[in-house]
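Q: what does this look like with pyridoxal-5'-phosphate bound?
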Amino acid sequence: MPLPINNLKRRPAARRKRIHGAVERVLESGWYVLGPELEGFEEEFAAFVGTKHAIGVANGTDALELSLRLLECGQGDEIITVANAGGYSVTAILKTGATPVCVDVDGETLNMSPAELEVAITDRTKAIIVTHLYGRMAELEKISAIADDAGLPLIEDCAQAHGAAKGRRRAGSWGLIGCFSFYPTKNLGAFGDAGALATDDAQLAETAKQLRQYGWKRKYETGKVLGMNSRMDEIQAAILRELLSFVDEDNLRRRAIIDTYRRELSAKSELILPPPGAEPDQTDFAAHLCILRSRERDAIRSHLAAHQIASDIHYPVPDHKQAAFNERVRVAGPLRETERAAQEILTVPCFPEMTAHEIDMVVSALVGYDPGASTN
Ligand SMILES: Cc1ncc(COP(=O)(O)O)c(C=O)c1O
C-alpha cells in the first residue's frame, strides 16, 4: 500500500547516525546481553517515566507477566482488566494461572470505566491492570482511588502511552508497576523486541531483576523459583537510549496529525473522530494510534484501500470473544461498549514521519467518501 499505517524505514538522517553510533558502541564493547547499555537505559528511562527504578526485559507481554508474578498472582486469583486491548494482559494473566475478569470501557475514550471497575471487585481480586489504550491515559485519579480503597495493586499497561502525562506525572508512575513494550512500532520502539517495568519499589525492582534471568540471585544461584529468560539485549538498550530523547517531539507530531484529522473531518457526520486529550496541551494523549469510528467502518476501509491508503482494526475481536481463550476469560457484566466499538473502530495512518501530502491524502479520501455510493 503506498500509504501504510506506519513506516519504520523513514528515519531522519540525524537519528540514523545516532543509531549507527549506538550499534558501534555495542560492537566495540563486545558485551551483548545485560550490560552497561541496559544499565544506562534503565536509569534514563526511570528518570523519563518518573520512577525510582526501571527494569529492562525482553518484551511488553513479559513485563506484564513479571509484574503479576512479582505480586504472586496465581490460581484462584482474579485480575481485573479490559477486553479491548489486544489480549496481551489476558495472555499474561492466564500464564500465571489467575483468571482474567474483564470490565467494560468508557464509550468515548475506550479506556477502562472506573464505575465498572468498582463493581467488579470481589474478595478474589488480586490486582488491576489498566491499559492506556491508543496512547490515551485512563482515568487514573479515579482508578487509583478505587484501587487504594480496595487495597489492590494497580498495574499500568503503558505499551501505547510512552511519554503521556497527567499534570507532571507520566504514564507508568501512577500504579505500583508500569509495564512498557518497545516493539518497533511503539512511540518508543526498539529494533526488535524489548520491554520494561517501572516502579518506585526497590524490593520489587530487585525481585524483577532476579525473575528476568532464571530467578538467579547471583550467577548460578537461584533466589526465586519460576524465573524466566526475559533479558533485554545491549543493542536494543543502546538504540533505545538514543531514541528516548525524541519521544516527546514525536508525540507532539502524532497529536498534531490527529488534530488535523479532527479539524478537517469534523463535518463528516458518519465519522467519529478521536476525542482530544483531557489535559492542557493534551499531554495525556500520546496519540499512538488514530482510531476513527463509524457504523460504515467496512465500507470506509474499502474506500480507503481503493485510494491506496492502508487501515487496520485495533482490535477486531474482544478477548472474551476469542475462541482460543475458551471460557477462561470472565466478564464482570455485559461488555456493551467494548463489543460495539469492535464493530466500529478503524485505524488510519498516523506516524511522526508522515508528510503533509500524506495527511492530505487521508483527509481527501475520507472527505470524498460518499455513504450513498457504497456497495458494502
Ligand atoms: C497495549 C499493549 N500491551 C502489551 C503489548 C505487548 O507488548 P509486546 O509485543 O512487546 O509483548 C502491546 C503490544 O504489542 C500492547 O499494544
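The pocket of pyridoxal-5'-phosphate is lined by residues 59-61, 85-86, 88, 131, 157, 159-160, 181, 183, 193, 195 (CB under 6 Å). The domain at 247-369 is CATH 3.90.1150.10 (Aspartate Aminotransferase, domain 1).
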